[in-house]
Amino acid sequence: MNRRGFLKAGGVGLVALIGGGAAVFSQVPVIPSRPEPDFEAAAGWIAYRDGRYTLTLPRAEMGQNIATAMKQIACTELDVDWDAVDVELHDTARAGVKPTVGSESVMLFTEPLAQACAALRDAVAAGRATGEVEVVARPRSALKVFQRGGAIGQSPVIAQGLEIVTGQPIYAADIDRPGMLFGRVLRAPASTEVRSRPVAWNADAAQAVAGFVAVVEDAGPPIGQAQGLGIVASRPGALDAIAEALAVEWDVGSDHPRADVGAAIDVDTALAAGPLPHVSLDGAPEDGAWDVDLRVDVPLAAHGPIEPRAAVAEWADERLTIWAGSQDVFYIRDVVADAFSLGADQVLVQSCRVGGGFGGKTICTVEAEAAALSLALSAPVKVQWTRPQEFALAFHRPPSSHRIKARLQDGRVTDWDHAQVSSHVMFTSAVLPSWMQRGTDLFAGDGGVERGMAVPYRLGRARAAYDALRLPVHTGPWRGLGAGPNALATESALDEAARVAGLDPLAFRLAHIDDPRLAAVLEEVGRIADWSGTAQSAQRGETRIGRGIACGIYKEVSYAATVAEVAVSPDGRVRVTHLWCTHECGLVVNPDQVKAQCEGNLLWSLGMVLTDDLPLDRGRVAAEYFSDAPIPTLTETPEITIALLDTDNPPVGAGETAMVSGPGAIANAIRAATGHRLSRFPVDVTELAA
Amino acid sequence: MFRLNGQSEDVPGDWSDEPLLHLLREHFGLKGAKFGCGVGLCGACKVIVDGEAVRSCTFPASALEGTEVRTIEGLARGENLHPVQAAWLAEAVPQCGYCQSGQIMSAVALLEQNPAPSDTDVDAAMDGNLCRCGTYTRIRKAIARATEAV
Ligand code: FES
Ligand code: FES
């Protein structure tokens, strides 16, 4: 390439770049609204300069290793070596992209990126070295990616893998700035949906703590209704001592009316008052006795990322720069600009690798705290939530209470009725102010709560309806949204239906499935687990062994089936000994990383059945550490066998799919081992004692 | 005075109240060890002190005198990764990666003390290291791979 030409262009090489996007300002509250990715936007993600390519990742990297998959797509379509492409995480100076949620990255971004790379490849081949490249879409059949060319289907060393294993700074909390201070925003030990604010504190005592820098009264927007008080120190360890010395007195409103969350969402209480308002399946089951009548309760659960969320904010020269580990930096920019009356062009948010997102790092919290403290002190400030803050102030998987009934005739389900009461996922109170909640609650259901209620089976006259109630704890998206809890409930009920019919649960499911892709994953998991050749219940000494099966479709596009094997000891302790999982998500860009997502989903499935819970006290999160809200450990990890079905269907997501089959398979295995149908999660071992 | 990845270092007076984790991250600029809970319950902050994997979030800087501290930044020899690091890459262990520095340091300490650990030894050494992404299966595989390499 012509280096002089590149220099003349003022330091900018050949950049397939469309100018920075206009700021998205919306009415209070700021609602994420950004377009589906298209070819034009994709041009801004890939640039060529001086013989090398830079891929600016249009997604958040949070462990789905999407940087690796996108780099595979880019290398393939550019037709260049792995080392010719550098990957950078995006900032908000770029055109806005959709938040990284819902397992959409491969599904929505593969083709736009491939189209942009193909156009850039042709431009470079034609000798162009500067300027912008126009992306003219070509048919999919002309894209190497869809022909499984180059790096597609391979599993190269993961992007940022070397940085991770050598401890390089790639997370938000790893950022260092000259003169950086350390901050925290204290909030009342109360429900975030009860009004609270600091009223008195001992500033003198705090000042006496070595490392004290400031108390900041204007600590940014409230979280829910909890107004905070900021503290800043020159060393991070001083923050605990300052907080203690301050001994803040809080003004806290009276308990939330639904402080007893379990009673508030009790599905039977709700049904006694009348039909549930939001309908997912509109069949009309006939009156009469039911063959299956199952109650399933799934509690609140935290995301439990090992990285408590963190941000560094730096206010300098009338501009605010924020380093964030977020699934949506554009939303953070818009919220921060709005909260502090800044222009969107005064706020730059840089993505860092996210230390575990799972749907939980999608809103703006710690970033606004860091911004408030930095603005107050005109210095860079780092804020990382403590573990108790992570439990108390984040939003969580809503609890849900299900009643499922089924009636059978001749081995087939003829009537089905699923009722669910939960709390909000999409229209979370963590974002919507209460005046707006009243509006949305009247007219809208919540697609996140509903996800998965439309079961992928032919069940005759099938009805599914739900309600979502505002609770004292913030709830929101959690890996798979409603799909995990709904599938746990429906796959449990379906298993009971198979027992009533006296049919094998695999054959029973197949008999109710129309979709050949679902049938394929189900049959394949039966094959790899030798389902038909193995007893579903057995006894080994005092240990009761059981096998269970489940399957499902995630977001109508991605397929999974699971067989679980469990061993239950006489005292009721459950050990999951083996999980087999099949998964079909269309064309697979990176099989090893799709398997990694299955492994993650299966561990989350195990957690859903055995451990996930978030204890409350009068409507306030009482959990402070992992000891109060445990997550699965290495010793609890079973042997895992995964088979991907290789098809030419369009590529779709994998990050949440196996959440539809894993939990049900484990619960059904426990049923097979013990004869006990779990109705409350996580398991209470005393229920399972021999 | 103590040794940090082979270099002699001092704990500055005003940092002596801090846990080792903050000292490493915010004074020495070594960001590999991570803050996950601050109370010894997750293992994200593990480093090796005098040959033992310890949780640096609960190890006081004031207790460092005379110790030998190794962090993940000190494992590789130039471009040559430590066998445990290489195994971690070969098995593509990391998802989000946040817990992995602690996992790797636990595994390094384990293999130094016990070059041929049984499954039970691995479970005992690694169980205090939580991973929410669910990379445990690969952690086991990577330890097995590193065991062969060592
Ligand atoms: S941060 Fe040290 S054990 Fe969790
Ligand atoms: S890789 Fe994410 S917590 Fe372990």
Low-confidence stretches of chain A: 1-28
- What's the domain count of chain B? 2
What is the general shape of chain A? Answer: globular
What strand line-up does the widest sheet of chain B have?
A: 2-1-5-3-4
Description:
The complex is a heterodimer of chains A (690) and B (150). With 690 residues, chain A is α+β, with helices and mostly antiparallel strands. Chain A folds into three domains: 2-6 and 172-254 and 309-384, Aldehyde oxidase/xanthine dehydrogenase, molybdopterin binding domain (Aldehyde Oxidoreductase, domain 4, 2-Layer Sandwich), CATH 3.30.365; 39-165, Aldehyde Oxidoreductase, domain 4 (2-Layer Sandwich), CATH 3.30.365; 261-301 and 397-688, Aldehyde oxidase/xanthine dehydrogenase, molybdopterin binding domain (Aldehyde Oxidoreductase, domain 4, 2-Layer Sandwich), CATH 3.30.365. Chain A is built from 20 helices and 25 strands. Residues 1-28 of chain A have low confidence and may be disordered. Chain B is 35% helix and 11% strand. Chain B is built from five helices and five strands, in the order ββαβββαααα. A five-stranded mixed β-sheet of chain B has the order 2-1-5-3-4, covered by helices on one side. In chain B, helix 2 (83-90) crosses helix 5 (136-149) and helix 3 packs across helix 4. At the A-B interface, helix 5 and helix 18 of A face helix 1, helix 2, helix 3, helix 4 and helix 5 of B. Bound molecules: FE2/S2 (inorganic) cluster (FES) (2 copies). The site of one FE2/S2 (inorganic) cluster has 12 residues of chain B, from loops.
Quick structural summary:
With 690 residues, chain A is an alpha+beta fold.
Per-chain topology:
The complex is a heterodimer of chains A (690) and B (150).
Chain A: H1 3-8, E1 14-15, H2 39-43, E2 46-49, E3 52-57, H3 66-78, E4 85-89, H4 105-125, H5 161-166, E5 181-186, E6 196-200, H6 203-207, E7 212-216, E8 229-233, H7 238-246, E9 249-252, H8 261-264, H9 267-272, E10 278-282, E11 292-298, E12 310-316, E13 319-324, H10 329-339, E14 347-351, H11 366-377, E15 381-384, H12 387-393, E16 400-409, E17 412-422, H13 434-443, H14 447-450, E18 461-468, H15 483-501, H16 505-511, H17 516-528, E19 537-540, E20 543-554, E21 558-568, E22 574-584, H18 591-610, E23 616-617, E24 620-621, E25 639-644, H19 662-674, H20 685-688
Parallel strand pairs in A: 3-4, 5-15, 13-14, 17-18, 22-25
Antiparallel strand pairs in A: 1-2, 2-3, 5-8, 6-9, 7-8, 10-18, 11-16, 12-13, 12-15, 16-17, 19-20, 20-21, 21-22, 23-24
Helix pairs in contact in A: 3-4, 15-19, 18-19
Chain B: E1 2-4, E2 7-9, H1 20-27, E3 46-49, E4 52-55, E5 68-70, H2 83-90, H3 100-113, H4 119-126, H5 136-149
Parallel strand pairs in B: 1-5
Antiparallel strand pairs in B: 1-2, 3-4, 3-5
